[in-house]
Design brief:
This protein is of the alpha+beta class and about 180 residues long. Helices cover about 15% and strands about 30% of the residues. It has a single domain, classed as Phosphatidylethanolamine-binding Protein (Alpha-Beta Complex), CATH 3.90.280. The radius of gyration is 19 Å and the shape is globular.
Length: about 180
């Protein structure tokens, strides 16, 4: 009878244990709740005059089995006929990494963790390209999403597009966490 009570107590303890932390993405450079993206992260070109620095990002609570991370930044409001606009795609971020500093998304990726790679965005080059919606358009939403992946390396062709990378990232995702910033001009 004591064994039965011990087993019941153990099961009750397991059932009431605190749930695993949710996978979260944060940025000190983007106000919570869809706040306005600062000029330091706005594109410098196409009529925009920003610093074009990728915002600092931190994440926590990745699920067990995470072997790498990827980050996608997308503007679904861009007037492209429905495809939106890819602002940054970085993948093969090692599993021990829990954030990227502001400005890590340069074209050549020198400030990215060793092994991380980028694909060309809709600006035509790899690296972060900040917000620059059409003048007079409503503020656009910029979705920053970190993916916890079940693979250490993605098998992408050398000149993969952002859409192909996004497809492979989603196909290998264990979990994702997002935040959204806005910007209009």
């Amino acid at each position: 009878m004591a064994l039965k009570h011990l087993l019941a107590s153990a099961l009750l303890l397991a059932a009431t244990a605190a749930p695993a932390a949710a996978f979260e993405l944060r940025s000190p450079d983007i106000p919570p709740g869809g706040g306005t993206i600062d000029e330091t992260s706005v594109y410098d070109g196409f009529g925009c005059k920003g610093g074009n620095l990728s915002p600092a990002l931190t994440w926590r609570g990745a699920p067990p089995g995470t072997r790498s991370f990827a980050i996608l930044v997308h503007d679904p409001d861009a007037p492209t006929g429905g495809a939106g606009f890819w602002h940054w795609v970085v993948y093969d971020i090692p599993a021990f990494v829990t954030g990227l500093p502001q400005g890590a998304g340069t074209q050549y990726g020198a400030a990215l963790p060793k092994g991380a790679k980028q694909v060309a965005t809709d600006f035509g080059t790899p690296g972060y390209g900040g917000p620059c919606p059409p003048k007079g358009d409503k503020p656009h939403h910029y979705n920053f999403t970190v993916y916890a992946l079940k693979v250490e390396k993605l098998d992408l062709p050398p000149k993969a597009t952002a859409s192909v990378a996004g497809f492979m990232i989603n196909a290998n995702a264990l979990a994702k966490a997002s935040l959204t910033g806005t910007y209009g001009r």
